[in-house]
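ESCALATION

Customer reports they have been waiting on this structure for their group meeting. Please prioritize. Original submission:
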Amino acid sequence: MRTALVTGGAQGLGAIIVSSLVQAGYRVAIADINPDVAQHLVKEHGEEKVAVFGLDVSNENSVEQVLDQVEERFGLPWLLVNNAAVMKAQPVLEIDMPTFERIISVNLCGTFLCSQRFARRLVAAKQSGRIVNIGSLAGQNGGSATGAHYAASKGGIHTLTKVFARDLAPLGITVNAIAPGPLDLPSVAATIGADRLPALKAALPTGKLGRPITVARMVVEMAREDADGLTGSTIDINSGLYLR
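Update from on-call: job pushed to the front of the queue and completed.
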């Protein structure tokens, strides 16, 4: 049984990804800044399949400690899902530097740090593996309902995906990203505002918010051992809002 490490897996999209990976046969290590929130997933799936660890993805020591703990509990993971993120909708002229730096630190630096430290361990152990990054439509079109800090962080994640994919491909490690548009999640409704949801849905070519389970299923597909020809890619799941 292979192990997956999912950052930001306690709730929302991360929790759905965790459940999909368990159903696909993985043991899953949930690493989250709020580990207590993930206890419902342990109760749902069992301690033999799910374990929870406190993690600050922007802190080097925290990342190394959690990787040590996961290895001790489940062994070296096959899959890393970089899902941890901070989202904030804010006009560009109103963004202060502490907020900008925090979002970049968690979303972009966290993805870099977790990917680098995970990949180092795979290389040292001479093992192949998979990394899946959760990007965003905002990182492609500049964002229409989020802030410049969030959009910039997600655009950076898409670029990191290409860099890591290029450098790690000869070592048997694939790196891909998923770029969701608006998803049917409470966090999205809270960010956009419930009063604006009807107009948003009407603007989508499909007329519907994206299904989080579609993103989770794509993570499972990207992590397959026989998906070794898929690397450096960003898969769009955006209800037809952005076509390229």
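Sent to customer with the following note: The longest helix spans residues 97-124.
Escalation resolved.
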